[in-house]
Amino acid sequence: MNVNVNADVDVGMDVDGWESGHRAAYGCGAWERACHQGGLLAAWYEEQERGLDAPAPGRFHARSGSRAKWPWGSGPHTVALLLWRAAHDAGILVDEILLADTLRYCDPAAVPLADGPLPDAARKGGIGVGSAGSVAGVRHVLQNHVAAEVPQPRPAEARLTLGYRVREVLATPDWEGGDWPATLVLVRQAMRRADDQRELGTWQPTARERATWARVGPDRRPADEPAAPGDRPPVWPARAARLADLADALSADADTLPPDSQGSPGPLAQVLLAAARACDGLRTSTEEVGRLWAAEPQAPADPASWELAHVPPALRVRTEETDDLLRAVDVFLWGLTYS
Q: Coil, strand, or helix at residue 141?
């Protein structure tokens, strides 16, 4: 007997409002968001199947085996279709669905996805609509992401949403789709090259370049504004937002510096641009978590627990290491000013 996964659908759901909510939150429609997030989940799984990288401590890895071969209409397309349907049925944003809830759509006895609501792209034939067999075939992809919830220090009542899992995957250092440590390395390499060129005399900093620390010293934190009574926002969003703002400041300042003899960014501009890219990598997660905090009907009583439920440990580590890097850049710019 079929499992009716649509039994709790609100037939009066405002589809236009649902789509508008996605565009306001993500700048794209529900199907585009599901494709982006579903493609990322499938790509992470494929990489683990190939075994390209050594396991990182505390990271869940999928079972080993040959690389998955996705026929048209299955794999990433089917994962995206599952995510879209789960969000549609619940009347919530794609990122807000609980990953564990998607597994019921993979039950061999479930009503085929093609028999229910579909995104316009599917109805127009723009994608292959997976059969019941292909839907069941992507269960292992979703199951591996669901299982990744286990070893994390999160509040017991917090459940794994798609948005949380994507933020976690993108902050996982040993995944080629989000290798942020390599970005930090590029900043340190740029600082070493600049120091070497200055010592060799091939780069002679201008007065404006020497004054960069005074303009954008990245380790200077703004004074904390007094919080309203009972208003205690979580710590991470403010730290990450400061880094995202620094990305803009560093990039803008780099554009004002003189180019090298080839018309390319000079040694100092290369340092600033590399540091800006490292900071900018936190922007998307910062904006997403900020929207979640703003959407709370009232400030949570325990902001620290709220943060644990929405900011993965890997993302906090990325933020801390980016902060450490910015302190090194600050020392570099200070030395350029006073050497």
A: helix
